[in-house]
Input
Amino acid sequence: MELIIDVYTEGKRWGELMGCKNVSDLNELVKSGKIRELIRVNEALHEKRFSQIADMICERGARTVMIAGPSSSGKTTSANRLATQLRAHGKLPILISLDDYYIDRDKITPNGDGKLDLEHINTIDRKLFSEQLSALLSGSEVKFPRFDFKSGKRELSGNMLRISENSVIIVEGIHALNPLLLPDDLDKDFVFKVYVSPLLPLDLDNRNRIAASLLRLLRRTVRDFETRGASVQRTLAMWDSVRRGEEKWIFPFQGNADVIFNSSTLYELAVLKKHIFPILLSVQPSDEYYSEVRNIVNFLNHINEADVDDEIPPTSIVREFIGGNSFYR
Output
């Protein structure tokens, strides 16, 4: 908890320095065009922080980096940007997604309501992951799995890998900070743990904060629609289950982190509005999720839309949600 408070306090300080403490300030920056400078400074701060974390990893001599965080926190982009910084240290980063260790969907036991709890740690083949991580660190060659989300099944990717002396394994996934994943004989001193979360330090006004969960829902809605062809209704239908899974399997382990990375940006609400508003306005009053959609619309009515996508770099965490992220090409 102390780490989170420190990170949030730092974010508030930077908001004050950049003249963006609340939505009113953000709207003024949109109207004046100064939001472009805000984007450049915010992205520079992210890059500086990734550089600092890479320094910490190298000083520790860590061979494995575990990156966790709740849904739509920007874990994948964070893993890739951290890998870039480690390359600048002469390291050879190896990226592993825990998603590829999912058990075949037809082998998961449904809940009492007949639905699958895809947030549960038992959906991950922990035994296979632990064995492969141990094998890699001991110098053996490993053939990685790949999970096909369309078929709901895992297969061998054919990618064989043996790490070198300069390699750093970066593991990314919602369960990455859960100690059940790591081999019992692994020297924990050589594991560096990163928790990623968008701790938005922007207030709606002087009395109301903006919840990080709302920002993540906006991010996920845009990403699901833009890159996965999913409707806003589908995203909202899954959101309660996602949140319950986070409460049980992610938040309890954030205290295990060596460092917390605040993946929020002060400018993104104005950018996300451009992408999400047309999606929300298409939902009709007869729809079962209409009231939830209207609550989001009412919130976004306080925010000025910004058409500044061209200013956002291709490696930005925001690009993970609006598209154009160079790590996915």
